[in-house]
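This section describes the prediction task in plain terms. A model, or a person checking by hand, is given the sequence of a single protein chain and must write out its three-dimensional structure as a string of tokens. No templates, partner chains or ligands are provided. The sample shown here is typical of the held-out split.
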Amino acid sequence: MRALVLGGTGWLGRAIVQDLLERGTEVTCLARGATGDVPDGARHVRTDRRAQGAYEPVRGAWDEVVELSSDPGLVRPALDALADSAAHWTLVSTVSVYARNDEPGADETAEVVEPVDLTQYADAKVAAERSSADRLGSRLLVARPGLIVGAGDPSDRFGYWPARLSRPGPVLAPTSSGRTVQVIDVTDLAAWVGGAARSGRAGVVNAVGEVLPMRDFLRLAVEVAGFDGELVEVEDDVLLAHHVQYWAGPRSLPLWLPHSDAALMHRSARAFRDAGGGSRPLSETLAGVLADERDRGVERPRRAGLEADEEAEILAAVR
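The expected answer:
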């Protein structure tokens, strides 16, 4: 089997390439290489996909093409150059395409956003889905992952919690009542994409893990990290008054969502399971992430979460 991965040097892309290689697939990656090298064993065609003639070195028949981008300036030219000769195509999209996040358990039939502004992530992904479907029809698999987690995660979101809980408390947390956590381990997602390439699976699938109440997630993270301090849950309005941000980024509490958007972390996983998808125990993912966080340094500057002095300042004000 011959597979072409459009990308393959980033975090998820490398995981997909590694899985394909382990299945005995001959893998070529078309990428600039700005985020690193491809895994050993893969062929790396270094090029800027926007350059004239970028796809000439990889024209021909492919058993599988994996597209990771949402950029219309990359997605459409790739389809023009390669779609007619690809036996199967996987587009990695996202659950962020859905127009509403207040319907817990909603499946793939839920309404998606209209792609009005293609500079917006969700709009661009919907546009990529539609242009890919127009060209590929029944040869297309659209994978819509939820929050992807695991060792090496460059977003620093999920890893915030085991890293923080590995240090002394007290630890600031959002109120967990009525909230859920739903993630997919990067290795499990890559394995499913690799398997789907082999089987030629098509359609649209939410690639998501099991739903866990946030309170249970925090308890599990406490257990894995060996934390014996106090977890201080604070109401949303108080956190917002202290300029704490939802979800991700600086001065945030990662995985914390407004109740109106709670279903972003509560999508139906039925189609994923029916399509052979699976997710390892969350305790295993947390343990792997904690080991990775310790290797990288639990007190390092992060892209998401509260700095130690920010957390201490808020805790002093609310207690």
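For orientation: The first strand starts at residue 2 and ends at 6.
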